[in-house]
Structure formats: C-alpha cells, structure tokens
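pinned: reference chain
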Amino acid sequence: MDLHQLYVFTKVVEHKSFSKAAEDIFLSQSTVSSHIHGLEKMLGIRLFDRVGRESILTPQGERLYQWALKLLLIKDQALLDLKQGMTELRGMVKIAASSVPGQFIIPKMVKQFRQEYPEVLFHINQSSSKIVAEKVLNGSVDIGILGEKYEDDKLHYIPLLKERLVLITSNQVQLSGGTVNIQDIVDHPFIMRNSNSGTNAILERFLKKNNIAKDKLNIIAYIEDGQSLIQFVMQDVGISIISEIAARGYAAKDMLKMYDINGFHDERYFYLVYNVNKTQSLLSKLFIESAGVLI
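pinned: its structure tokens
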C-alpha cells in the first residue's frame, strides 16, 4: 500500500473535497483523483460518496482513514527513531484557540516550535472557548488552547499558564485608587464578552458569588472579539473586565487604565486540550509534549 496515496486520502477526508485537498498539498486535482482511484482499485472498494459539493466517506473509507492515520504516524515515528531529517518533518498542525491565547500565547509557541521544526505549517482558528472545545471533540482540529474547561471523557486538559481578570477603563474614567469594588462599577456602561467565552464564565461566577444579577450590570454591548472590546473601552464607550495578559501591554503604554477588583481572587488557567480518541500526527504529538516549554 502506497503511503503517499494514504496521505493524499487523509487530506481529502479532512477537507471533504478533492479540490481543497489538492490546494492544501500543492497537487493538481486530477493527480489527487488519480491517487484516490488507484487506492480504490487496489483495495477493491469505494472510499467516497459524492453528496452535493462534498466527498463523504463510505463505511469502508471511514475504517481505512483510521488505519491510514496510524500507518502515517508509524512512518513518522520510524524516521524520528532513525534520527534522519529531524528538522525536515513536514505537515500541518491545526489549532483552535480562544481569544487571549490566540493573540498573546500561540504566536510565541509557534515561533519556538518552528525553530526546531521549520517546515511545519500551522492552521489557527480563533473562536470562543466553547467552540474551541467543540472543534476538538468533533476532530476538525488537532489541538485546542482555551481558558475554560468543558468536561468530557474524550477531552484531556494540560494546564499551560495561570492568570487573572482585571477591570479596564478608558483614560477619561476616574476611579479612585488602583483597586475597585464590584458594586462601584455596576452603574458604568459595561462592554461584555460573548456568552461562550471563558472570561464571561468566570465573571458570571464572581457576580453570582457577590449576589449581583447579571442584568444589574449596565451592559451596552456584547463583543465577540477581545481586541474589538479593548478598542471600545479605549474610545470610552464603556468599561470591561478582561484577561490581565491582554490588558497589561495597553496599560503599560497608558492607552487605558487597569484596576484590581476587591475580592476577585479567582485565577484561571489557560489549557491545551486534545481529544484522546483522535490519532494525532507525530507533529501534533511533538507540539503537545513540548507545550509547557514553549510558553
């Protein structure tokens, strides 16, 4: 069985498209089709059904996909064991990240990893923590990095970095001292992260602990993107509570004000999460194993 054919097959499975797979691995669509047809002819089975514009796996194709991942992993492990071309390992690592890790943690991790494996290509998708966990569960990404745990037997979490939340305001807002009470900010216009974010989950737990209903906040906007939220605050549209990691650089440059919140001692971790039922490529395994060093 030709390992390159199997590699091409896995790419068609991942993209559900011959054309997108061809674009990903820099082959013509006709070459990709030829590899798949050759594999089907050799095995004597049909691997894909065409449904609309997508190529959907047949039951036999689903079984072959699992075997193909294992065979390709063994091939990579053999090369690694023979210590040939360590820096020549090629492939893609697909990562889903929530807002803060995507902007402030992953760039450093990617830079560090590519110093040892310069041929690696990263595909990084940014969304809320809940969506990150869902992508890891459905196998559309190899790894997730997020700020909230969503319990599931298939998910394994590795703590990466501890952090806390802080209040941010524009330079026009005058609050006394470097620490504020949660009751003091209830009447200020408030910019809220979307409900699926890890930041939102921690804030809601804190409000509940202080017997403050969420609807008591003067919420004027829900924002999906953390950077957009910061811009709203800097323009004095409202105040917000965000990750200290995200706020620190802006506060250091006097672009906004940052405050501690009395009693808000809850710290959180950013986690790397992966699906224990998904067969990881060697590159994904290496990234997972070295994640703590890359921070």
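why pinned: The longest strand covers residues 155-169. The longest helix spans residues 59-81.
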